[in-house]
């Protein structure tokens, strides 16, 4: 069973690398989409937990959800303000 998972991991990594090479000019779009999907999965995984905990603690669920959105926005603003991305041309 371990060998099967090892082979599947190898194949998925190989396919991901081939997609990256084939669509090099659109790679930033693919990475942006992937990051958005990852954030959506995390957020939608946290939403039911927020509802359950706020109902148990008898707290308004709006406050933790606003905190979640504000946390994302603050992280996004800091990334845009503090990280300096330089445009470079690949000659490879």
Task: Explain what the structure shows.
The protein is mostly helical and 92 residues long. It has one domain (2-82). Helices cover 79% and strands 0% of the residues. It is built from three helices and no strands.
Structural class: mainly alpha
Q: In percent, how helical is the residue content?
A: over 70%
Order of helices and strands, N to C?
HHH
The structural domain count equals: 1
The percent range for strand residues is under 5%
Please tell me the overall pLDDT. Answer: 85
General form: flat
Radius of gyration: 20 Å
Report the total helices: 3
The parts where pLDDT drops under 50 for at least 5 residues are none
End-to-end separation in angstroms reads 39 Å
- Please count the beta strands (DSSP E, at least 2 residues each): 0
Main sheet: strands, sense, barrel:
none
Write the layout of secondary structure elements.
Blueprint: H1 2-22, H2 27-57, H3 62-82
Short summary of the structure?
By secondary structure, this protein is mainly alpha-helical. The protein has three helices and no strands.
Q: Top keywords for this entry?
A:
92 residues, mainly alpha, 3 helices
